[in-house]
Amino acid sequence: MNKEVIVEKINYFLVDEFEVDKDDIEPNANLKETLELDSLDFVDLVVAIEANFGVKLTGEDFQNILTLQDFYDLIETKIG
Predict the structure, then answer these.
(1) Is 5 within 8 Å of 13 (Cβ atoms)?
(2) Does the keyword Lipid biosynthesis feature in the UniProt annotation (predicted)?
(3) DSSP 8-state secondary structure symbol assigned to residue 59
(4) Contact between residue 72 and residue 31 where contact means Cβ atoms under 8 Å apart
């Protein structure tokens, strides 16, 4: 799966399942602040990633994830 498909899928479920405004989705967006994701949303995000990409994420995976780009890169690495 290439990076473009990963980004497209992530952006789709952020808008569809998390009701994030499409205009707020940009690579340098801060996950917690700009996208207003709280800790419960992160749990739902992990479940969505597992369902859409078949990879498991842990709390440790998110330690250095600040932006949406960081998140895209994490998923690409996990799939790789």
Answers:
(1) no
(2) yes
(3) G
(4) no
In this structure, the dihedral spanned by the alpha carbons of residues 80, 21, 42 and 67, taken in order and rounded to 10 degrees, is 60
Token readout for 14 is 């952020």
Q: What is d(CA 3, CA 9) in angstroms, rounded to the nearest whole number?
A: 10
Bridge partners (DSSP) of residue 30 are: 67
Please report which residue ranges of the chain form alpha helices under DSSP H: 3-18, 39-53, 68-79
Structure tokens at 47: 């479940």
Query: What pTM was estimated for this model as a whole?
Result: 0.89
**CB neighbour list of residue 23: distance below 8 Å, 6 or more residues apart:** none
Q: Take residue 13 and report the two structure tokens written for it.
A: 């479920």
What is the per-residue pLDDT for 68?
94
